[in-house]
Design a protein that fits this description.
By secondary structure, the protein is mainly α. It has one domain (about 5-225). Helix content is about 80%, strand content about 0%. It has helices at about 5-25, 35-60, 65-70, 75-100, 100-125, 130-135, 140-155, 160-190, 195-225. The longest helix is centred in the C-terminal third of the chain and has 31 residues, at about 160-190.
Length: about 230
């Protein structure tokens, strides 16, 4: 039994409670009242992105040894942050499964399944915590992706705020999502001799799934916000 599982369970419960209380904290505007669960879901995702993206940056700043050893180094704070993210992705998986039709959410459910497996290995084995923390840098871009959805639901698409967020979203997408995933794929390739076959297979499959998904999403963002 891993103490990390307690953190996962606590995180799941905390994000579930946050999701339930968000409608009081951030009441949906009239344009979002037809889809209240999605309004709550996006704000919950935004809270996780701020926590995990900011936490990942802080982790590499406070523990520079993480960047030198992505496999064996596992400071308690970094390990807990990965466990908290597993709890969030489990909560979001359940939330979408209960409130959205499968044909509308299968891509994200698939994405979450891959992340839960990969991060779960890091939590249980106390290895690859640094690698998981690199993956959490992607959440810095997710902050602006979620803000974009909130502005869309609030019917603020024709505002300066939306346009500015679109530009920042695009820039952070290239730096913290595309470049980060490319670097992770490169790291896996270079370290294939030092990673156990089963773990290497999981990581390679994860990258093979995530990279095309993120390229497709990038194209959709460009088409929607800049080429429309």
């Amino acid at each position: 039994f891993s103490p990390g599982l307690l953190v996962v369970a606590g995180s799941f419960a905390a994000f579930r409670l946050l999701n339930r209380g968000l409608e009081r904290l951030v009441p949906p505007p009239p344009s979002a009242r037809r889809n209240r669960w999605k309004w709550r879901n996006i704000w919950t995702s935004l809270a996780h992105s701020v926590l995990s993206g900011g936490g990942a940056l802080a982790g590499f700043y406070l523990h520079p040894e993480l960047s030198k050893d992505l496999v064996g180094t596992h400071p308690p704070g970094a390990h807990s942050l990965v466990a908290v993210s597993v709890g969030y992705f489990l909560e979001d998986f359940v939330d979408m499964l209960c409130n959205q039709k499968l044909h509308q959410s299968w891509e994200l459910l698939f994405h979450h399944s891959v992340v839960i497996v990969c991060f779960g290995i890091a939590v249980l084995l106390h290895q690859y915590v640094g690698f998981a923390l690199v993956a959490l840098l992607v959440e810095i871009n997710s902050i602006f992706l979620h803000l974009r959805q909130i502005l869309l639901m609030a019917n603020l698409v024709h505002t300066t705020c939306y346009r500015l967020n679109s530009l920042i979203n695009l820039g952070t997408y290239l730096v913290f999502r595309i470049a980060t995933l490319a670097w992770m794929t490169h790291w896996l390739f270079l370290n294939r001799e030092n990673v156990p076959p089963a773990t290497y297979a999981v990581g390679t499959v994860g990258m093979a799934i995530m990279t095309p998904m993120n390229i497709i999403l990038f194209y959709r963002l460009l088409r929607s916000d800049f080429f429309k």
